[in-house]
Amino acid sequence: MLSARLFAALAILQFGLAMFENKTDHQSIDVYFHATYFVVAKTHLQILQALASACFALIYLAASRWVLHPLNNSLGLTHLVVAAIGSVLLSASLSAFVSVASASGLSAIPPANHWPLLACFAGVLCFLSGCAMLAVNCTWTAITVFRSQ
């Protein structure tokens, strides 16, 4: 239940940051992927992260209500920390992408600055490892439930 509350608080925080961000300068970056352009703004990323955190909160809440053996709190808190780190890294890398692209007047990032790309990769890796922790937590709970019967 603690993990559900903390993920709900994280989702509210991320959604609040997305709504109260400076709306005067619409900073976004164009992503070209397989002949398709995607326009990604920091607000879009924060809303997507808030939705993911809300889904995690609902999963932890449902598991605490419906399963006799609750999910592991340590894995839940670790999942929260890794998800928060991933959220910060992704937001920082997108801000750096936008600032470098707007400063150079280009739509692409010059190859001299690699830290935003590494931060983006680390943020995605943190998010995926958090999803793996949730899967391990659910599997561990299922194994303990079946062993107790």
Report what the structure shows:
This protein is mainly alpha-helical. It has helices spanning 2-19, 42-66, 73-104, 115-148; strands at 28-32, 37-41. A two-stranded antiparallel ribbon has the order 1-2. A hairpin with a 4-residue loop joins strand 1 and strand 2. Helix 2 (42-66) runs antiparallel to helix 3. It is elongated.
Keywords:
4 helices, mainly alpha, two-stranded antiparallel sheet, elongated, single chain, 149 residues
Distance between the termini: 24 Å
The portion of residues assigned to helices is: over 70%
Which sheet architecture does the biggest sheet show? 2 strands, antiparallel
Tally of alpha and pi helices = 4
Label the overall shape.
elongated
Number of strands: 2
Q: Please state roughly what percent of the residues sit in beta strands, choosing from under 5%, 5-15%, 15-25%, 25-35%, 35-45% or over 45%.
A: 5-15%
Seen as an oligomer or otherwise, the chain set is: single chain
- Whole-number count of domains: 1
Uncertain runs with pLDDT below 50, 5 residues or more?
none
Cα-atom radius of gyration: 18 Å
Major sheet: order of its strands? 1-2
Give the overall pLDDT as a whole number. 82
Counting helices, strands and paired strands, the structural category is mainly alpha
Order of helices and strands: HEEHHH
